[in-house]
Amino acid sequence: MLDFILVTGDRAIFNPIFGKAIVAVRPGSLTGTGIPTVNKKKICLVGDEKKVVVPGCSYTSPPNVTPGTGTLFIQSLAPNQKARKVKSKRTAVLLKGTTFTARFQVILPAQTPTIPPTPDPIPVYFGTGIFTTTNMKAKGT
Fold this sequence. Notes:
It holds the Pfam family CIS_spike_tip. InterPro entries: CIS_spike_tip (IPR045362). By secondary structure, this protein is an all-beta fold. It has one domain (3-140). The protein is 0% helix and 50% strand. 36% of the residues are buried.
């Protein structure tokens, strides 16, 4: 099915629920490496999503209610976010698609407000996100 091709400047919007962790999310920005352009912006290829990094996001994970911090990444794409037919430089282009899998890497663990504080023992949480695009004319499959 046809879907919009992602371009430089499009956003990765992360859902705030990562299992039992609640993350204060911020959007990530895509940078395309494809040769063709849409509205003078390079198109995004499979692999460009790996460069989306959103550091310094605070989180809590009950009973660890004293906030910690971590970094958001795109872990993996949904099958409908990789074009099967449209390619650039022999690599599939990225499509808006449905939902990707996101990873939240804990840098500074959230803690319980006890004495002494107990740090969150979980180093990585998984969640989801979507892409938003400014491209409303070029589609691929």
